[in-house]
Amino acid sequence: MFSEIAPFRRLCPFLLNSASDWLNRSTVAADILKSIGISSAMTLHFRSGQGSSSSYNQSDPAFDLGLDLDKHFDLFEKVEVDAVLQGTVYLESITFVKSGNKIQLVDLSSGERAYVLTILVLAFVTVDNTFVLFDEPENSLHPKWQSSIVSDMWKTISKVSVNSHTIIATHSPLIVSGAAGHSCYICDLQSDKGWIPSQMYGKTSDSILKEQFSLLSPRSYSSIIAIQNALSAATTIESDPNKFRIASDELLGLNLKFDNDDPLYATINTIKELRGAML
């Protein structure tokens, strides 16, 4: 929470672990990072740890490792990789390539850092039978990325492991709609229904807000239809007052909230006044 580099330091030994499936893992990560504008190539900058006695280069303890997720890192100096894996050096910073320009980790937006970290961790740390807990992945993410993060997570996990599961806690309808229904279950902690198959994949935010979060957007399809019905019924209020009574009660029962300068604010107030005059 308080350091951009700290989570990447924990990740670093996994990135440099020459497992037999390293290239498969890195390829998955590279494809997803490219989709958000981050190159597969990066440079890891290291320094010696305080009080450590690294043996790779006593005269100059700092060094850089170029890492390209599209290629294996067999050309790395083994003594340098060993220093990282043994914890005698620490990751100080990372240089990424974004849209052809070099950019430091600290200069990425919080959303970019979160997305990159999420994909790299899942790609290189996940093993068979992994159980992933993720609290509010929507934090700091652009709406477009909120729509894609769950599918990218699942794509990554499914390609590097078997029989792994993820539980996500979220308040974002975009996160909910981005979870493929065939492999997704939803649990509303405020109900006693337990886990049920998700029917939310691909639905609009307004639909999910209504169905899953019991929140109706003032400009959702349901709201607009209710407003139109009340206005239509108002034109025949003298000949059929009961029609307007029913339509206006349904609309006002939605308890829609509008700012004072919203054009619909005056419309709702007029309908409310007409309904009040009928009492």
Give an account of the 3D structure.
This protein is an alpha+beta fold. It has three domains: 6-125, no CATH class; 127-215, no CATH class; 221-277, no CATH class. 43% of the residues lie in helices and 16% in strands. It is built from ten helices and eight strands. The chain has helices spanning 6-15, 22-35, 78-85, 110-125, 143-160, 173-177, 205-211, 221-234, 241-252, 263-277; strands at 38-48, 63-68, 89-98, 101-104, 131-135, 165-169, 185-186, 196-197. A four-stranded antiparallel β-sheet has the order 2-1-3-4. It has a two-stranded parallel sheet with strand order 5-6. Strand 5 (131-135), helix 5 (143-160) and strand 6 form a beta-alpha-beta unit. The radius of gyration is 27 Å and the shape is elongated. The protein starts with 5 loop residues before the first helix and ends with a helix. The relative contact order is 0.09. Mean pLDDT is 85; it is low at 51-59.
